[in-house]
Structure formats: C-alpha cells, structure tokens
Amino acid sequence: MTISFLFLMALSLSLGSIMIYLKRLRQTVKQAPHLLNLGIEAISPLNLPKISVIIPAFNEANNIEACLISVLASSHLPPDKLEVWIVDDQSTDKTLAIVHALQKQLNDSRLKVLAVPPRPQNEKWIGKNWACTNAVKYANGAFFLFLDADVRLKPGAIESALQTAEQLQTDLLTCWPQIVCGCLGEWLVQPLMANLLATGFDFAAVNDAHTDAAFAAGPFMLFRRTAYEQLGGHQAVASQVVEDVELARRVKAKGLKLWYALGSDLAAVRMYQSFPALWEGWTKNWYLGSRCNLSLTLYSVAIVLVVCTLPWLGLAGVLLKGIIGGWTVLDMLTLAIALPTLWMQYQLRQTGGILSKIPTRYWWLTGVGGAIVAAIALVSIIKTETGWGWTWRGRPLQRPETP
Fold first, then answer.
1. pLDDT at 319
2. How far apart are CA 114 and CA 122, in angstroms?
3. From 110, 261, 270, 287, which residue has the greatest number of CB atoms within 10 Å?
C-alpha cells in the first residue's frame, strides 16, 4: 500500500463523513424551532405573570455590569411584574462592589442583591447550584429565569420568552443564544462545539415528550415555579457539575413539558473571555455532558478529527509528497477529492452559523480547531476520572454521584 493510496483513502473517508454530518446538521437546522422576539412594546404586561430573573455570579467583575444593564434595559415590566436578583456566590473580586454601586446609580427598584453565605462544609454543592438555591428562597415570581452573567439580553427578550412559555404551557423553556467569539481560541473551538451539540441533542427529540432525550442551555433557562419546586430545584442537583442538562432530564422524567429552541433574537452570550477560560470550561463539562459515556466521548473525538482535521492533513501530505517525490495519478485524484471536501467543510460552518450566528471567519483553520476540540474531550475524560486539575475558576471539583 503506497503513501499516495493512504492519502486518497483519508480524503475519501473525510468526504464521506462530512457528507453525512452535513446532511444531519441541515436536518437539525430545518427542524429547530425559533423563539421569536416580539418586541419590547408588543406585549402588554397586564397579561403576564410576575417573573424573577436570577443571575448567579462568582468572580464576574468583567461581566456583571453589562449583563445587569442589558437585563434591566430589555424590559419595561414594572416592579410588580419583574424582579432581577444578582446573587453573589462568595466572589473574591469586585463583583459585589460593582453591583452595589450600580444599585445606587440606577435606582431601579426591580434590582435586588443577595450575597449568599458560605457553602455548608458537610454538604456537596457544585457550581451555581448553591447560589440559585439561596435565591429562590427570596424570589417571588411565578416564573424563574436563570441567566449566566455572560448573557446579554435584547429588548423584548423577557416578555417574549414569558409569553411563549404561557402559550405553549412549558415547564422549562430553554434557548440557545447567539454565540459571540472574541479571541482566536473561541473562533477555532466554539463553532465546532456548537455543531456537535446541535447534532448530538436533536431539537425534535428533546421536544418530544415520548423520548428521554433531554437538553437545556444553562445560560437561559425559564422555569415555571411550580415545576421547579416539583423537581426540587437546584438543590436536587447540588452535586452535579452539568446541572442544566440534569435538570432537563428530570423535567422529562417527571412528565413535565420541556421546550428547547433557538434564541438568538433574544440573547447573546460570550461564554469565555480567553483560551484558558475556554479550556477550563469545556474540559469541565464535556465528558460529564455525555454522562461519563466513554465510548460516546471517544466517538465524538473520532468524528471531529475525521471531519475537521483529517482533510487538511491529507491535503498537506499529498502536496508535500507531490512536491518532493513527484506527482502520480493517485495524487491528482486525491487533490480532486480534497477540493470538494474542503468546500463542504466550509458549508458545515455556514450551516452551523444559522444556529449559533457565528460567522465563517477563520474557517480555514478548522483543522486546528478540530485538534483542539479532540484534545478537550480527551482531557475532560482524564480530569473527570482522576480529579487532576479539574476546576472552575479555581474551585476544585469532584465527580458527582450518579443520579
């Protein structure tokens, strides 16, 4: 078997895999429901129940001001219809000071601030669960909207989500915000992660009450209060690192209504501010998101390498071989396959962008991005299974008990 034949087989494998992957992604785009923004003036507050927006914050000094201002500015709901809780979870930076200063500056009675006490040492509380559990003791809305501090709401978002939840009679409405990229690492990784999540958590299956498929996007989760209390809230998943997906699973297990949609018209999120933060965040969540399914995680590694990285390695290899050793018929055939393969890889980015709203910028570095995503998945397995270096913003994590 010659090296030319190996390159030909590699590109052929990639082409076939991309065709299958692209077909599935297009089907996902076609069936994905959209959470429409009806506009800040289009919905009468008289017809809406009260909503409590809850934003847990741990060392969010870089995010909290922009998040809070966007939430308050997004809605004209009065204080008897809307309260916004900023819940400081023992931050060691200036998060709480920033919020207190904004509270005085804005003088908006809808804004509430809660600094939660330290976590009980004899209990296992992971991530935002402690902050959310404390907040709901004080919140008095008929709905709870849990947002992450890196979310930026758009005008009309709260009213639109609330009216949709009422019309569809959902117990948990969750949506995928527009994903914003800043640093190069985000441009390389986030589009690929978005595509993997879109194909891995099928919208139709998640929204089908007769399946056990469940998913929720942690940055934007709107619960009916009665359903949230029936689930036991965040306290019921206190030890879970990927609490959003676990809550979604419990919603379906209880026979409650889960609705999962695209929400780019309502909100935007920049999940990570740097590559180290991105690395820490995804290696924290990836393996657990599969419920520690080793074979599924390794399968995702294989898919991302074959679809994203192998085409570029094959192309580079055949070009180098041809330049050094001369061209053969197999080499020319390999090049003929490489061009449509890379074009279809570009179409993957275009199609995924319909879901995530991430432009195709840096698509030609997809091969590098695929290698990084594969490394994230492998490191996530190691960190989760061993606990070595498994942290979130410096807080050490422990593997949760199997629910």
1. 87
2. 23
3. 287
